[in-house]
Amino acid sequence: MAVILLVEDDSGIRSALSRALTERGHAVHWQPAGLPGLQSVIDDRPDVVLLDLGLPDIDGVQVLAMLRSVSDVPVIVVTARDDDADVVRALDAGADDFVVKPFGADHLDARIRAVLRRSSSQRSEGPIKVGDLIVDPKTRTASLEERTLELSRKEFDLLLALAQRAGEVVSKRDLLAEVWRQPYGGGDRTVDVHLSWLRRKLGETAAKPRYLHSSRGVGVRLAPPSGV
Ligand code: CA
Q: Partner of 222 for a Cys bridge, out of 57, 89, 142, 162, CB 3.0 to 4.6 A?
């Protein structure tokens, strides 16, 4: 459950999103414009802000810049199609992620959970231990049985995302959203390829898994080998 602030001037989108997010267990506050939105960040202390870029009083990117001077709350920018330039400006101004209209509520919820996990992992930066595997988000290093693993940037991000939810099956869709920041989903193959590279570096195979356990059609789970 998260406290979500929705800053959106379109009342139809607002009520649909409020309902969908409330159904998924979140508490939703909303504001129809930038200035009351900024006030609400201070008053309501949301966990996540969903910020529409096209607002009636101030441009959303400017709202974001002002917001960043008072808060480091995760912000997901909501934008209409065909304004890539605005998305780039928003990411430069400190947005954590973006979704393009129209989008489904499940997709948005996955992005909300992803930014929340990222912000909580930044807060608790201690190394994560899974059996003899240690993943350290602070130094961005990982070791297995006291041997340092040589991982590419994406391999590390993938391993960290799985380590943060060790023991849980993580869907490829969530991994794509979290590690690759893919706004449109798809691209399971990308995940598969990186998983196979990661497997090789962990010294295991899909047929004989030790740490990386695939659940066909569901996702993948990082867990210590049985007996450790
Ligand atoms: Ca708008």
A: 162
